[in-house]
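Contributing new complexes? Match this layout with FE(4)-NI(1)-S(5) cluster.
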Amino acid sequence: MERSISPDSVMLLKTAQAAGVTTAWDRYETQLPQCGFGETGLCCRHCLQGPCRIDPFEVTGPKNGICGASADVMVARGLARSVAGGTASHSAHAKHLAHTLLKFSRGEATDYGIKDQAKFYAVLDRVGIARNGKSDQELAGELAQLALDEFSEREETPVWLKTTVTPGRMTKFEELGLIPPGLDSAVAEVMHRTTNGVDADAVNILLGAIKCAIGDYTGMYLATDLSDILFGTPTPVMASANLGTLKENAVNIAVHGHNPVLSEIIVAEAMGMEQEAQAAGASEGINLVGICCTGHEVMMRHGIPTATNSLSQELAIVTGALDAAVVDYQCIMPSLPDVAARYHTAIITTMPIAKITGATHVQFEEHNAGEKAREILRLAIEAFKKRDPTRVNIPPVTNDALAGLSAEAIVNVLALVNPDDPLKPLIDNIVNGNILGVCLFAGCNDVKVTQDKTFVELVKALAAENVLILCTGCAAGSFARHGLLTPAATQKYAGDGLKAVLTALGQAAGLDGPLPLALHTGSCVDNTRAAGIAVALANKLGVDISQLPVVATAPEAAMEKAVSIGTWAVAMGLPTHVGVVPPVTGSPVVVEVLTKAAKDLLGGYFIVEPDPQAAVAKMVAALKERRKGLGI
Ligand code: NFS
Ligand code: SF4
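Output block (do not edit by hand):
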């Protein structure tokens, strides 16, 4: 199998091989063949009597675990725990922002502030905090406290859930008992009910997983709100992508991970340290680039280039030009210090819960954020001095990438066409068929499939069918690397109807050409921005999200976070495609519930389809079915 179709990855994989550097792709090969029990979800280690495994064919091997768990129960429990893992990650990210806001309100985090007052007030209004002449600092404290209350068990529906979904969804969630008891409680409940001897009904376990995923949605919405308040709501910005954004004559620093609490301060402090970098011999000063979602956070807000994605993060080091990778948490390969040991790159961990043996740890805290950021930047400059120029091998590949299309930014562009009723142009074009429907691209790259191949094939085919594309996280990174976040891509690949709409919007926005083929709406936690647009459309039309011609896809999903997002997309009522088969095929009941019964229950359901052409056909059919339901 081809490892990647991303030209910079392809080139650096050869470099890595020649240098004897091992990457995720090599390690994947050492794992083959992967265990069939695990692949089908039929292994369990939830108690010390295990590991237990079940014969997927139930021929000669065991039909049950030692405790009696059936294949259906084992698979459902495993999937539920993945959802809990994803939810815990997003929720921790959200909680971190709430703590930052709280510290700001107490005057303990002076490097932070309210960057976007309009969004701050809009969120206060939405969550029901009256301003009553209180200072922003006081209000920030109240908002942070309300946010933190969302995490613990309480009797009320989480505020960020009930104020952000359609009335129809809320009724549905209430009827089905799917209101999470609190965001951390939702995770704890899944861990409890999936331990030995608790929930032994696969359907009930899956409902528990869906409830937890709705908690995941809630935490993600909260995270995006607080990020926008603290760091600004993104507006359209021209940036660039690929590993060619590293510069030979600069101190190259990658911010990598997820939370803008750290990366925003690094961005702010880097400006003041240009001279130090130049004094060290870097004529172009400091060059910041992003990897993974923290990269998208700073790309959306500052136009910082996105260098690469999770799967190919090691290759940034293999350029020989990366002086430091500053990481916070999530999707950071434990292998980074091993690869870096072959070069001069400093791997700098910053979070107490995310240290890596062999890395340099600089504990980052909000109360001395600026000082710590400068310390980190100095480590990068020191590392630059050790760079071996003969090993620098930056692939000559860069692409333009328009980013910054938050929900607010999209509405602002639409308002240029119709100031009184911004959503109307979008609705009109969906009704008249210029736009067949909307597809949200999300999720990771996965070493099991050729990097970017499914992403690129799907987006081109869907755009040709006049599907409006939104994208986030590694999906957006993939499109950026292939020049698909550009007006030129719209000219080349969009169907006539979609092209006309994107051109009209591009002109209204004062662009030279159309809006990009895919609208970059943010990092993975920002998937709720797309949900927000869908909710606004549904509310305006007086229907539920489950009736809208909107689908989601994670064609190369890898992480637990992608599983929890996919699950809440289904809960929100979206047909949700996954291109990598999740470990559920060992259970006929789980497969049936996720791909069929969910449709009757929630309107959303999973479409598992590794073949890109077949996946496009299924997503287009789902959009057409929805259009028919609406009579358009
Ligand atoms: Ni999302 Fe962002 Fe990427 Fe996957 Fe990881 S970086 S949070 S989980 S790999 S899309
Ligand atoms: Fe085996 Fe049951 Fe223990 Fe899982 S919980 S390891 S199936 S005995």
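Reviewers usually confirm one structural detail per submission. For this one: The chain has a mean pLDDT of 97.
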